[in-house]
Amino acid sequence: MRQDRRKFTTRLGAGLLGMAASPLWAQAPGFPNKVIRIVPFGTGGGPIDGIARVYGDKLQARWSQSVVVDPKPGASGILAADFVAKAAPDGHTVMFTLPLTHVNNHILQPKLPYHPVNDFQPLSMLATGGPMLVARANAPYGNLAEFIDYARKQPKGLTYGTWGTGSTAHLFGELLRRQTGANLIHAAYKAEAAAHNDLFGEVLDFAWANPSTARNQTQGGKMKVLGITGTSRVSTMPNVPTFREQGFNGFDIDSWIGVYAPARTPQPVVEAWATALREITAMPDVAARLTSFGFEPLGNTPAQFTERYKADYPRMAELIKAAGVTAE
């Protein structure tokens, strides 16, 4: 695996960075000339679907062209990513996604039907954030230390749900299990909402949630948040401490929302997309919506997205190794 990662990192330097650093032009004559299709990670009604619709409305107004948000859930995002990878490279089909499809899946499943670098053109990393560890509101613990103490005393262990095998939430759950010795049992779901339904129905003992979901369910009195992963607290839930603040190391890897087009998309179209995404992200109402979803707005360039991807890949590989997660 180490040799494969070394080859992959070399590809990143020679391939993806080269594409992102190529000359870009501000105009794309004739683009768009048909319906724009945004394929979001996850199911309809999920956080990424919601964010894709916010951008879709802005893009439709900007380009005077219809925008369709078309989720293709399942298989940890593989179906959606493969659909976009094989779409015509004309800029009319893009993907809004999380690291799972382009980092985690590649490390865990080398025989993917797509290659996360060779088959995609990065457009922009819209925002960063991190999953939260959550429990039912009536759970007998209020922070991570109390949770782990409780978990260690359960002879049958505690079962938790995430939105897919190999997801960042799954990795963090397994890392927590290894670090603490608590018997934490993973259950993979196709969508975050399905896992939470089972949490509230007491099928699961705890779960992971995106910040927007956690905030809404907390305000509704159904959920409590025990800690947030990543490097910092989120502005929408400033009282929730990070794992590091609570004495748990290794959880300070930020997740992100990225937008990709198929590889070989013409550079004028790449720049049209990149410029639009950066400017839309900077709009006060869009930034507020991203924040409401629990993400911190970013809106970087293709080259900056590439550099962040290159930096995140080895860190995620180390997290997967530390968590002991393998493909199922």
How would you explain this protein's 3D organization?
It is a single chain. With 328 residues, the chain is an alpha/beta fold. The protein folds into two domains: 2-129 and 254-323, 3-Layer(aba) Sandwich (D-Maltodextrin-Binding Protein, domain 2); 132-246, D-Maltodextrin-Binding Protein, domain 2 (3-Layer(aba) Sandwich). It has helices spanning 2-21, 47-63, 78-85, 99-108, 144-152, 168-180, 192-200, 211-219, 267-281, 284-292, 302-323; strands at residues 36-40, 67-69, 93-97, 120-129, 132-136, 158-162, 184-188, 206-209, 223-228, 255-262, 296-297. The strands form two sheets. A six-stranded mixed β-sheet has the order 2-1-3-10-4-11, with helices on both faces. Helix 2 links the parallel strand 1 (36-40) and strand 2 (67-69). Helix 1 packs antiparallel against helix 11 (302-323) and helix 6 (168-180) packs parallel to helix 11. The longest helix has 22 residues, at 302-323.
